[in-house]
Amino acid sequence: AAIADFWVSKAANGTGRDGVAHILHVIPPDEYATGDDSVYTNSVAKIALDFATRAAKVVGRAPTPAWANASSAIPVLFDARRQYHPEYRNYTFGQKIKQADVVLLSYPLMVPMSDAVRDNDLAAYEPATDSNGPAMTWGMHAIGHLESGNASKAAALFNRSFANVQQPFAVWTETPTGGTCAARASPVL
Questions:
Q1: What are the coiled-coil residue ranges (predicted)?
Q2: Contact 82, 74 (CB under 8 A)
Q3: What is the pLDDT of residues 136-156, one digit of tens each?
């Protein structure tokens, strides 16, 4: 219940005249970005709110109506012309991102979408991703391509993630060069 109440409070603070519950000033998985209505963050919020509603019913409690209201008012951004999910409101198509973000919608979040939209998300964000980003990115792209039936592309991206393994102890690092992306993520770090 507490996580649902948290998302209700975040959504309520961003509700405008349009009746949409905007979640504002978010740093999503893509740590290069700060934006409003992160498609990943908004999807996680909706999942948490919907789960709390279902869980309350399972345990015989009345769900808080604000949970369902917030969930239905939180937008999951979609560009109908390009048939893909923009990372956040005012995202510029092709803008460099640090790591997997939107591609996490299909897995692990399991946000419903067509195969074509999932493939368009992969096609949009793979070339926009910083080549010095984390290995997790390429693993998530590999899963997306496996879902699409493109095993050769999945294998290439899975193997790409191993560039972040540093010898002699096979330690995984944030970047393929053995460093971190922290300095690029925030000027404070």
A1: none
A2: no
A3: 899 999 999 999 999 999 999
| Structural tokens at position 81 | 């012309």
Distance from C-alpha of 140 to C-alpha of 152, rounded to nearest angstrom: 15
pLDDT for 15: 72
Q: Is 144 found in the same domain as 106?
A: no
> Is 187 contained in some domain?
no
Q: Rounded to an integer, what distance in angstroms lies between the CA atom of residue 26 and that of residue 181? A: 18
The answer to whether residues 31 and 94 belong to one domain is yes
Residues 75 and 93 in one domain: yes
> Do 77 and 7 fall into the same domain?
yes
Give the type of residue at 84: Y
Q: How far is CA 6 from the centre of its chain?
A: 19
CA–CA separation, 98 and 108 (whole Å): 18
> Of residues 43 and 11, which shows the higher confidence score?
43
Residue with tokens 């095993």: 151
Which residues fall within 8 angstroms of residue 112, CB to CB, at 6 or more apart? none
CA–CA distance, 49 with 44 (Å, rounded to integer): 9
Q: Is residue 188 part of a domain?
A: no
54 class by beta-carbon count within 10 Å (0-12 exposed, 13-18 middle, 19+ buried): exposed
CB 3, CB 52: distance < 8 Å: yes
- Return the active site residues: 31
Domain that holds residue 151: 131-181
